[in-house]
Amino acid sequence: MSEHLPPLREVIKSHELQAKKAFGQNFLLDLNLTGKIARVAGDISDSVIYEVGPGPGGLTRGLLSNGAKRVVAVEMDQRCIPALNQVSEAFENRLAVHQGDAMKSDELELLNLAPNETARIASNLPYNVGTALFVKWLTLEKWQPWYASLTLMFQQEVAERIVAKPNTKAYGRLSVLAQWRGNVRIAMRVPAAAFTPPPKVSSAIIHFEPTEPLDANVQLNELEKVVERAFGQRRKMLRASLKGLGVNAHTLLENANIDPTSRAEDLTVKQFVELALHYQKMRA
Ligand code: SAM
Asked: Ligand 1: distance of its center to the CA of 130 in Å?
């Protein structure tokens, strides 16, 4: 039974899980807090949760206690595996743990979903690969994706970039990509003191739900090219920053009905989609 599990501080002591920087380890040891984070994921009773980096298992316990049907976790640090196996035993084997690198994992193969199961991702992400994993899950070719939601911890500054609106400093590639593919919000802020050891900056949980694309004809790689160019030189006017795209930047902007003197951060996500569509047309 889950109540037989020792407090997380004891788990860390007995399994010698002192945090290592190289693994991006900042642990959450307060089970009230991890329960709260798990609840951000919503009703998870029919869901299989894919968790990256369970560490000593704080969030994992939160997810299982909140009724997740199963949790499939990928943890890079070998030292955590015995502690996680104990969590699995305490929760009637609803937890499956895989040792490995989430950047290289095939999530669907690990999840092995039954037809009636919904997949969701929940993770207190390691800071060193957090953004790369988020981009991996946002840029899947097949959309709708295999997951129903993402509930992810980021450094607050990254979370703010993800939800940023046009005409703000934080608005950029991550905002456009995330808001192109779904609805996203900051669900919770988490102070540095909640972690062991505390990181230098505060963190925040974002909750993302995929939606139908704004325009089904737009190709991901073309949108990415346009967005990357535009924000690569964000202070420049678009007629200059889009020059390297291999088409006449002025004509492209005119076709998309966008003022050539505007800058990347002036454009809405919808306008970026327009740009990408016309870019595709001009290159066809
Ligand atoms: N979920 C735990 C918690 O909330 O206390 C730990 C979170 S800690 C910020 C990040 C975890 O991700 C660590 O346990 C670390 O070992 C693991 N990790 C780091 N890089 C990873 C990778 N590429 N693949 C899988 N796990 C990774």
From this structure: 10
CA of residue 104 to ligand 1 center, whole Å: 14
76 lines ligand 1 (CB under 6 A): yes
Atom of ligand 1 at shortest distance to CA of 8? 5
Say whether both 13 and 72 belong to one domain: yes
Q: pTM higher than 0.90, yes or no? A: yes
Structure tokens of 223? 């949108």
User: 284: pLDDT confidence band, cut at 50, 70 and 90?
Assistant: confident
Please tell me if the CB atom of residue 129 comes closer than 6 angstroms to any atom of ligand 1. yes
pLDDT of residue 49 exceeding 80: yes
Burial of 101: CB neighbours in 10 Å, binned 0-12, 13-18, 19+: exposed
Residue 174 contacts residue 158 (beta carbons within 8 Å): yes
Looking at residue 233, which CATH number applies to its domain?
Answer: 1.10.8.100
pLDDT tens across 10-43, in order? 999 999 999 999 999 999 999 999 999 999 999 9
- Structural contact between residues 217 and 277, judged by C-beta atoms closer than 8 angstroms: yes
Residue 117, Cα to own-chain centre: how many angstroms?
Answer: 21
Question: For residue 215, is it within any domain?
Answer: no
Supply the pLDDT for residue 148: 98
Q: Which atom of ligand 1 is nearest to the CA of 126?
A: 10
Backbone torsion region of residue 232, taken as left when φ is above 0, otherwise alpha when ψ lies between -120 and 50, otherwise beta: alpha
Q: How many domains does the chain have?
A: 2
Q: Which residue do the tokens 């009636």 mark?
A: 116
Domain coverage including residue 273? 220-283
Q: Is the CB of 194 under 6 A from ligand 1?
A: no
Question: What H or E segment, with its residue span, contains residue 236?
Answer: none
Q: Shortest CA distance to 53 belongs to which of 12, 109, 99?
A: 99
